[in-house]
Design brief:
Shape: globular
Radius of gyration: 18 Å
Number of helices: 7
Largest sheet: 5 strands, parallel
CATH superfamily of the largest domain: Response regulator
Structural class: alpha/beta
Order of helices and strands: EHEEEHEHEHEHEHH
Strand order of the largest sheet: 5-4-6-7-8
Amino acid sequence: MYYTVPLHLSTSIVLPVLRGLSVFGCSFTLVAPSASELKTLLIVDDSPIIIDRLRNMLEGILLPEQVRHAGSYVEALSFLLVKVPDIILLDINLPDKSGIELLKLVKSRYPEVIVIMITNQSDPSYRSVCAALGARRFLDKSTEFERIPDLIASLL
């Protein structure tokens, strides 16, 4: 008897456990998901340091090709015209326009997209505005940044 095990995480995590595994006479084969099945995440932040740190933090959760980034409102719009991501990590302070404006646009055009605000602007008024506009979560970069991987993993 054979079982198919879909791979949604890094193969470095799954392969050593399942390769050649036989339990009670059952063998396992590994099937990678198609490109259309993979969830995508867009990081919108103008700080290369933040983008690199987020990519590193998400390495064991998402494949590198699943994570994209934009450094501005305009770059994010360009990305959205090509591919609508499943999740957006969005900073409020962007160089060309507010992330709150991008949040409004995303939620009006693509209501199914999960938007998580990540910012140093943790004032309660920003939290209220973002929640009212449809942000799923609002994380303060200075105190809640380390929670991002667990949050993303819970959304996949």
